[in-house]
């Protein structure tokens, strides 16, 4: 039985953005609610534009039920075309994947989204002509290959007024000065230089306009092989050791070319392993980490656990949750990536060794590892502006192929891989293990992952800086000529109002104290943590910069050889990683020093907020971290209001930069997945053995815990 609510009489029109065009629509569409097994739902209009698919019901016309955490661009019932993952049609109770031309039109439409929402629409009561138009329109505009210039990004840039907030503190790394400032900030300007060799993209279209290389690298070397085989600087450690990356030569080459390239590489290696440079360790990520295909396969299996249609499916999978989770291999990939980042951090921090990350293009796993290492070792990268600058430097300007890896144009599934999502999952592990060390929250990471699919920002919709720059100029619809004005995702005021923005900032962030100038002379460039780590030195040698008295016999033998010799992974002490890892975790945490994630067994967890937020059965009503956050934010608001009163009494000017903290509703009415999911109907648990979702947050091993009979009617997560 379907509980029919009378179709709405009044006309509800979609809210269109500048440049957004209505393409097709269908009335009397019935949208099912997903909370329970009944066919409850609401009638409305289903529309498709050149930006999104949207369902409009009578609630869409009023602002009474708007959530506190409202996205101004994408509403609760909006799906951007780039966010559509798969579309299924239901024919006589059988699901069929919809692609391309359709001969027969379904009676139900199921849309699976990349942010893991699931929409169920019934088309039985819709006119046949409207069904044909809306179904074929949605499938065509969201699933078929398209040209880059057909992205809504360009329509919006042409029509939208340029009135964005100019207070964005993110370093964009689009100018030579930005790179020089970063070199100075990390004290890397002694051994490395920012080069202008690629101005006009005369070296390579894959390289950024400006980048940093060792001072000893000549312009001729950079030009010789279009930037391949050149160590490109990522970051410098406080002790002078640096993190570098390099793209390799194509494997299919004739013998003479391969020999020439080998001689070229040998010359480069010898050049950058002489003083003043530290010893060099090379790490080929293509052999030491999973392939992009393995990452894509694992994530595809993993996300299926959360694309749940109904309550029955949820409880059915809950019975074998642990085995299903383990079989995806996604958490194991996260663990391996974090372990690799710790190994690199050990080389930089303890062995004072330069690390050269090698990958075919140096724009995928190189980006993941270099970003993670900087988040772990540089407290600046754990601030909001610092993290955003890091993404700009390593990913956006660094040339990660967002367009191909996210498959925004639906041109080739072979190129698709969730590499950026992998980074965010790894960073989330650090955020939930050391929340006070980060200025941003997990909610920030979640909305950042959602922004991958919002094509009004240029940040995640190009493969390289060259592609963005060449497509930036062109005919503008309004001005007839001149460059497009693309928005950056880092201007969060475009998506959220100040009350919602408060959820992105961590109220318990331990801000870095201002350095005492009198102490800085004696403890220069040193983390507090460094003194308690094994194999450390008081001060690097001014002559060689890498020899240490504390190093054990094996390392002494290696480091005592010619500087031109390289450390290979096989030469390292077998227990050095474990010793480094265990020693660090045995000491108190310095939130502004080195941070190492815990990676043993159950320490690697599922990012519950991102993956479970749309599943009512997985919500803990009136509990979870949001209950704590609600109290903290209320307390902060009270303190701020008292401060304002004190300032007024002393006739002082009140700063205009006071963060607006929202008045939260009673925490007992909130779900643990607030602000993304509000209080919803609880589903009835079937009478069968289940394993509790609460184990996702427990300290117990995900794998070793046996499935058990648990009553989930009270606590659920």
TrEMBL record:
InterPro entries membership: MTMR12-like_C, MTMR12_PTP, Myotubularin, Myotubularin-like_Pase_dom, PH-like_dom_sf, Prot-tyrosine_phosphatase-like
Name of the encoding gene: Mtmr12
GO biological process, alphabetically ordered: phosphatidylinositol dephosphorylation
Organism domain of life: Eukaryota
Location relative to the cell: Cytoplasm, Myofibril, Sarcomere; Sarcoplasmic reticulum
GO annotation, cellular component aspect: membrane; sarcomere; sarcoplasmic reticulum
Pfam families membership: 3-PAP (PF12578), Myotub-related (PF06602)
Protein name (Swiss-Prot/TrEMBL): Myotubularin-related protein 12
Entry's family note: Belongs to the protein-tyrosine phosphatase family. Non-receptor class myotubularin subfamily.
Keyword set, alphabetical order: Cytoplasm, Sarcoplasmic reticulum
Annotated transmembrane regions: none
Every Myotubularin phosphatase domain range: 173-611
Signal peptide coordinates: none
Major location category of this protein: cytoplasm
